[in-house]
């Protein structure tokens, strides 16, 4: 999971899905090749330990973290002496109150319980914040090489296969680490465009060396705001000495630090005037014929990076813009209907809507009561809305409600309506299936609480994609945030002439 230290909403154990072996397999059913790899070797007895699936958000409360660790300890004690290798499916950007390096502390705990002879391997998101202590206690690791992430299963397979291979050949590998003091917002460091593309492509070449088992570049998650937050380069090798390629990759990353930026084919905007800017695009898009929709990415409230997902800035700006343009529909004419969809996390409002019932109306209900703007009078209030549909018992937990919260006649004989997909659990909408049976092609505009579009969703949209730099727990304008725990100096917040000389 990714944590934002700037989120006002702490996470408890209730924000995690605790999964058994069968539940884990069912949750990741699409990763059948990974499970096939797990069970492929007849001489290996694979046992599932503790599995907690976390959602992105604020920092985890210390008592919840201690409860998680308490679930790990009995398993380690029960199998002590019988375990030869451990595989960990981690992310790397978790934040915990009172623990600056939770993943590092977890691996150190496992190492202390099982001893030096047991091999430990782990797979990570490339947005993990990897500490030297974590690498010291891991024998091997690998991270995604794609962002957007399309090699998740492939990375897990590699981490587990490395573990099996080293056990078979009696190899005790070493993981080397170089911190590269750079902060990067994820939307500026995609691997589909330069410089990320060539940097990550170079890793495969480095891995051809017989001494190198894996090479990874971690871009980090800046909003975790801990001393370990930074880019870094890691290499897992057979020998104990760091190879020269490790420093080569680190230098290449450092030399390209100023080149990271938003993709050139993406429009960039702030909130002010955003809907005036795209009004012509909306009017030129007839979803019935073109089967397409435009997309606004609410970067500062990006749920997948740790934001709350309930800030209503863009929704309010849209309502305000509509009211300025309001004009009666011409008598006897059928207006052209434009529909807008957005998502908001609001646990209490979901429960209220479910209690009222599908097809009924709600009145004077506030949206986003736990956001950064919580308890302020300007939070958006649904004066009258229709509950169109709700879903229960979702595989990722909680309920969803589809609510029509606003409808307004505009100039040029058009009618604009706004639907809000309310979620009980914070949810990142990355793929079409995340929207359940909501037909995105019925909408002219979709406002995502997210960053870059994943390939399948971008292919479906076919419209204009606009990144909107918004305030929030993961504001991409890093220079505007009040940092407390970063190891300084770090680019771009500080001027650094050289960094490898002190590594």
TrEMBL record:
Which range is the signal sequence, renumbered to this chain?
none
Give the highest taxon in the source lineage: Eukaryota
Q: Where's the Microcystin LR degradation protein MlrC C-terminal domain? A: 296-484
Q: Which InterPro entries match?
A: MlrC_C, MlrC_N
List, for all copies, the residue spans of the domain called Microcystin LR degradation protein MlrC N-terminal.
1-263
Q: Which Pfam families does the entry mention? A: DUF1485, MlrC_C
> What is this protein's record name?
Microcystin LR degradation protein MlrC N-terminal domain-containing protein
- What organism does this protein naturally occur in? Arcella intermedia
